[in-house]
Specification:
By secondary structure, this protein is an alpha/beta fold. The protein has helices at 11-20, 81-93, 105-108, 110-119, 140-153, 171-180, 184-194, 208-215, 218-221, 234-241, 244-248, 255-264, 285-294, 300-309, 324-334, 342-355, 378-390, 403-417, 443-458, and strands at 27-29, 45-48, 55-57, 59-62, 98-100, 127-132, 159-167, 197-204, 225-229, 269-272, 314-319. The radius of gyration is 22 Å and the shape is globular. It starts with 10 loop residues before the first helix and ends with a helix.
Amino acid sequence: MERKDKKGMSRRAFLKGLAAVGMGAGWTSCRSGSGGREASGGEMTYRVDPVTGQRVSLLGYGCMRWPPAERPDKNGNPIDQETVNGLVDYAIAHGVNYFDTAPIYGQEWSERVTGVALKRHPRESYFIATKMSASSDNSRESLMAMYRSSLENLQTDYIDYYLLHGIGGGGMELFDRRFVRNGMLDFLLDERKKGRIRHLGWSFHGDIEVFNRVLAMHDRVHWDFVQIQLNYVDWRHAAAYNSDWQRAMGDDTNAEYLYGELERREIPVVVMDPLLGGRLSNVPQRILERMKRKRPEDSAASWAFRFAGSFPGVLTVLSGMTYKEHLQDNLRTFSPLVPLSAEERSLLDDAAERMMDSPNIPCTDCRYCMPCPYGVDIPAVFLHYNKCVNQDSAPQSGQDANYREARRAFLIGYDRSVPRLRQASHCIGCKRCLSKCLQGIDIPSQMRHVDDYVERLRRGE
C-alpha cells in the first residue's frame, strides 16, 4: 500500500502530476518563501518532497563540522555558538532550509548548538534531520532516551527527517538488535503516524546485503528517504577505492547501484559525502586544470556538487560548511544548480579513473574515531597528507628537482596543521579507533605509513 501525503495523494500520483505540468522530478528554482514561482538566476534550486509537496533546498547544511570555539564554554560546549548563529542566518537568508545533525556530532554538542541557532527562526522555515545513532548497549531504554533528548536539544516538538543511523556496519544481526527485536522500529513508525516524525529513513554505511534487506522492508515500512554516499568517484569506482577491510565486510558496491535501486522504488535520496571527505575539493593539479579550462570560475568542489545534484532523484546534497566562504561557494553552485552536460560528465568520469592511481588515505574527516586516547589528531594527520598528495606537492625522493623545497613545505605545513604531540608518531597501535571508522581504514597501519614518510623527510632521504 502506498503511503499518502497530507492531501491524500500517493507518491506515484504526485510525481506523475509534477511531470504533467513540466516539473519533471521536482525541479524548481525559486526564492525562499516565494510561493513556488519560477525564479530568475541567482536563487536557490529546490526539490519537491513527494510526501508533503514541500520544497527542500538542494543544498543541505551538514552540521557535523560546526566551527570550534577558541576554548569550551563554562558548560563544556566546544562549538562557537555565535558563529554558528551567523552561518545559519546567512544560509536561511539565501534559501537553505535543510539542516542535518546527529546526537554524536560535534562531541555530542551539535544538536544543542543547531537547536539554539534554528530556534531564532520560524519553525516552518526549515527542516531538521537527525538520527538514532548507536548507543552503548543499543537497549530500548537508551535509544528511547536518545530520541527524547534529540527533541529537547533541538527545541522542537517534531523532527522532519529522522534516520536510523549507520545502517550496514555490523551486518543484519546488529540492525535487528538495534531496531527490530527491541521494538524501536515499531515505535518510530508509530511516532511517524502521530506526526512527531514527518519522514522516516536511514543512512547506509557498508554491507550491501544489509542495504538490500533493509530496502526490501519498504513495502511494509515505506521508507520516506535514504541517505547514501554519492560522488563522482564512488559512482562507479567505490569498490576499487575501498579498503580491503571494507570489501571483506561486503562494502564493494558503487553508488550507481545504490541510487538506481532507490530511484526504481521512487525513494528520495539524501546525498552525504559529495566531496569524498574533502578530497574532491582538492583534486590533483592536472585534473583541476582541465576543470578550469572548461569553467574557469568554478571550484573543484563545485564540480562535485553539480555531479551529485544533477540526479533527479536526489532531494538534497549535504555539505559540512565550517566557514562562511564554504557556504558562499556552495550557494553559488546551487543558486541555481546548472546540471552537468554530457561532456562535463565525461570529464568527471575520466577524473575518477585518474584518481584511482592516487595514494590518498580514504578519510572523510567525520571524526568518529576521535578522541584518540593517546592524543593523536587522526583526521588532521590524514588531511594534511592527502592535501599534499592531491596538489602533487608531496616530495617523493631526493632525486626530484624540487625535492628540497617540497620537503620543507610539507614538514612546515605538517607542524602547523598538527601539533607535535598530536602527530602520527604518537600512535601506539592500540586499535581502539578501528571499529569506529565508517570508511574501514586500517588507521594504525596508515599512521605508521605517514609517520615513516615524515621521518624519511626529516632525515632528508
